[in-house]
Structures are given as structure tokens and as C-alpha cells.
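Sequence in, structure out.
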Amino acid sequence: MPIANPLLDRLRRGPILADGAMGTLLYARGISFERCFDELNLSDPALVQEIHRDYLRAGAEMIETNTFGANRFKLAHHGLESKVREINLRGVKLAREAREIAGQTAFVCGSVGPLGQFVTPLGPLSQAQAHAAFKEQIEGLLEGGADAIIIETMSDLNELQIAIAAARAVTRDLPLIAQVSFTEDADTLVGNSPEEIAATLRGLPVDVIGANCSVGPAGTFEAVRRMLGALGDWSLEIARASPISNLQSPISNPFLSVMPNAGFPTRIGERYMYVSSPQYFADYVPKFVNELGATIVGGCCGTTPEHIAAMRRALDALHPAETPRVIVVEKPTPPRLEETVAGMTSVPRGLRQKLNAGKWVTSVEIDPPRGLNPTKMLHGAAMLKEIGVDCVNIADSPLAKVRMDCISLAVMIQQQIGLETIIHFTTRDRNLMALQAQLIGAHTLGIRNVLALTGDPPRLGDYPNATAVYDIDSIGLIKILKRLNEGRDWAGTSIGANADFLIACALDMLRANADPNELERFHRKLEAGADLVMTQPVYDAAILREFLQKYGNQYGAVEKPILLGVLPLMSSKHAEFLHNEVPGITLTDDARRRMKDAGERGVAEGIRLAQELLNETKDFVAGTYLMPSFGRYDVCGELVKVLEDKILTF
């Protein structure tokens, strides 16, 4: 089953801008060439993340991880060969966190460079050793949640082919970008011509081919022009529209990328400098896009955020910035005063209506941004609305890490996107007065659905010494919401009208099955007034059946609708991490085996497992809420499309 990919979909709609050099900026900010740049992911993550954010602010839509040399052979020079997984995984997480803080839509590409030793017959490494090293690195990037893999600065076609094979042994689901570095004579260091490179890559399972590093914009332009000529007589427009996300066969019409150096480096005093100016790079953007048909443009060694900002302006002059397919209004219109009165039909009530009608409900979880910009989350909500989800549920600073508050994002999504929301609301950060004040304010702004939670303790997050409030727990919060629905606050004072909250409670079925106290605690939530149950993710229908039987034996049938939590698996490593390291999640042996057997097709198998689980449980639950890993809303979107065809309505 081909999996639609957001990067490939974006490339079909027009060119995007990548970032520039990482090493150049690390060097400029005081890191000597003797240091291992990749290791800074562990020892100085703030510096690495700062550079990612600088490029995002400059207008980059694609950022590369600080992992160019993070393979076992290059890391061995610094005694770090045992940290391949850790450095690569952390490199992706730093880039993703920078994207979250920036709050804008951007793609994180896992950077893979040459091994640093030639492969036989040119050097001492066997093909098996090279394949194992590339595979090890790419597994770490995949585990960290990269959106794509970029194999770059390759000079040996043989090594590049081994890297591609290793990447496709790990994943068939992620886009693969293959870039070669050329000398001033327009051949690679070992003598491969642009024509030879293009002819070989065209028959391999890659999505984008191109050149990076090399000798500056002019030399890179000439090399890619020759590559383009070797690809044959095919239409760029057809190539952009072709369904190339099915990677079971070689890609005949790949996209093109151009990411040159800022010219030759020059030693000035004790520092190396690059001479190509930002404006010079900007002047080449029309040539790259219009004459070559490049769909990814960016920079390599010597380029800075200033170069990328100049290229951003030039690219925007050719292709105005992309807008989400569901238009987001610039100035949200607040609800009229009369619409805030309980009972007015203009306030979203689709979730309640569907539950009352016994129709299948699908929600998808969205985490608020860690910074000031909610654009990425709004784009994700717009995409989810377009594919037909009923609502999104918005977390409340999960894992006790500071994020935009859930009410603000919920209001933006409802007013700007027109998609109903469920807010997660915790008692961790608010005393009894603040809880009620914020809930009344949320109701006034049109928020009607609340998942009552106690919340993760601060010691788990960024501020371990912060004071937790916990005036009440989730059961107490449910009682407060119920009291507000009766027109009174907790002290019994009238609030002027009955509120209209749909009250949801959480359920960890594994804990409830194992601990009678947890089963009794869940029963108290229902008695307190919960209208809806939302479960922790499960991977085995037997867990649900066991829970319903245990609860039924002690308290009678669960009479409230249940939304089954589903977290689609992405890979075997992702499955093992969840099973072994995340409390409250247990996978079946069969699920773990299937994910291992799926190999490079982990995303597709994860979707199949989720589909099978929902088909097995559809007679016992009212719907599902999906939890995207690594912000991959597209994977949840694929599952939603499957559910539309396969899940029966009640």
C-alpha cells in the first residue's frame, strides 16, 4: 500500500528552500575543527538547536540534522563509535524541537555523509562493512523521527549506491534524497561524470537527486544541467504530478535538488572564509528553478542564514509562499456575545451529536507549539479537517514541558480552521480558583469538550523544581465541570447559566486490569459525571475485552462511549521503544514480530495493525483518537482514509 508523504506532496506543488551550512556556523561560533561537530548534539544541544532556529527564521522549509559525519568510522576518530545511535537520534530530536519552537511547517531531513574511508576496490572497507555502517546510522535517524533521509556530498558512485541500499533496507516509507559533490572539472573526486551519476540514480529507489557542496553556484549549476540532460526526454510537469511515493519500483522521474557551496574557501588570518555573497546566491535561484527545474534549493559549506534569507526572497518572487489547502483566515472572528450563552447552536457540538447518534468518531491528538508560532499546528489541523476527522484533542503541556496553553490553540483551531476540539485540562498547574476561571473563559470562547486529567508531575519536565498545585485530582475536576454544567461554581455561587461541557475522562486499561484500585478509580470518574472515556493507547483487543469483563463483573456495563487510543507504530525500533521504555504501553508478541518482519515497510505495517485493532474493537467502542508519532499527521491521515472504507458505522 503506497503511503502518501507530505514532503513529496509539497514538492509536487512547487520548489522549497532548504537550509545552509551547519559546520560553518559551528566554526563561526567558536567550535574548533578538532572537535567532533556531530557530538555537539549531546554536549551542546542548545548551540545546535540555535542554528536550526536561525535557518527556520530565515525562511528554510527543510532543515538537515547535525549528523553528517555521525557514522561509526568517523566517530571512531573521537572515540565515539559506540554512540552512533544516540548522536543520530538526538540530532533528529534537536531539529524537531527547533521546528516546534519555531512553530512553522518544515521538514527534518536526516543527514548522512560519506563514511570517511573508501569502499573496495578504492579503499579498505568491504561493501558489507559500508552497508552495515550506513544502516546503523540511518536506523538512528529513523528512530528519532526524521521526515526524510538525505545522503549527501558523495564522490564515489559505488559508495552512494551502498548507502541507498542501506537506507531502503531500513525504510521504504520515507523520501530519499541522493546528492553528489562535483569538482571544478564537473566530475566527482573519483571520476564519475554527471551523466553517469544521473543514469545510475534514475534506476534506483530515490525520490530526489542532485548536487551539493561542490564548487559554488556556477559549477553546481553546470553539473546539474548535465545530469538533467542524461535523464532523457521527460516532462518536468508530469514528473511533479506523478505518484512516485510507491517505492516498490525504481523512480524514473526524480525531483532535482541544488545546494552549492558559497564558492571556494579562503584562509583569512586564522579563519576560513567563503566569498559568495547572499545576493549572488539569490541571483541563482531563478536559474536553478526555471532553467533546471530544481524543486529543492539551498546551500552547503559557507552559506549562512543570510544566504538562505536572500534565497527566500528570491524564491518567493517566483513562487509565493504555500498556504494550507484549507485556508486559514488572518484575523479570527470572535463569537458574538449571544453565541456564548449555553444552548446556542452556533457553538460546535458535532462531537456530542455524533456520539448521541451512535456514529463512529475519529479524533487526532495535536501538541501545542513550544514557541510563539502555531502555524505548523494550524496547517496540521487544516489537513486533518480536509481528510475528514471529527475533532482534534489538544494536550496540556504534556510531560510537564512548557508549551502554548491548550485553550489558546483550541480557540485558534476552532475559529480559523473550523474544526472542533477537545482540550486536555490538568490540575497540576492551577489552583481551585484558576481552574474554574479558565474553564468559564474557555466556555465563553466556544470550547465545549474537556478531558479532565491530573497531569504529569513537574519533576518529569523542564522545571523539576516547579511547584505542583494539585488542589484536586482528575476526579475532582470532573465534579467541578459537572457543577458548572449545573450553573454553579464549586462554592455554589451561580455563574448565570448552565455550562454545556462534554466531560471526558482518561482510562489506562492495562493498569485497571492489573490493579483493583485503578478499576475502582475509573468507576469513581464515571460516578463523578464523565460523559466520555478516552483510553491510553493499546495494541491488543484482548486488553479491552478483559477490562470490560472485569468492570462489568464488579460495577455493571460501561454505559459511556469509549474512544480507543491508537498510536500507530512507525518501525520495529519504535515498537520496541514503546514496549520497553514507555509506562502504560505493552505490545503483543505478534505485533512486535510483525513490525520486525515488516523491516523497511514499518509505517504501512503499523497502519495495518491499527486498522485490524479497530476492526476487532468496533463493536465495543464509539470511535478512536489517534496519536501521531513525531508529529506525523500524514500517517494518521492515511489511517483515517482506511477507516472510512473499512470501519462500519453503528
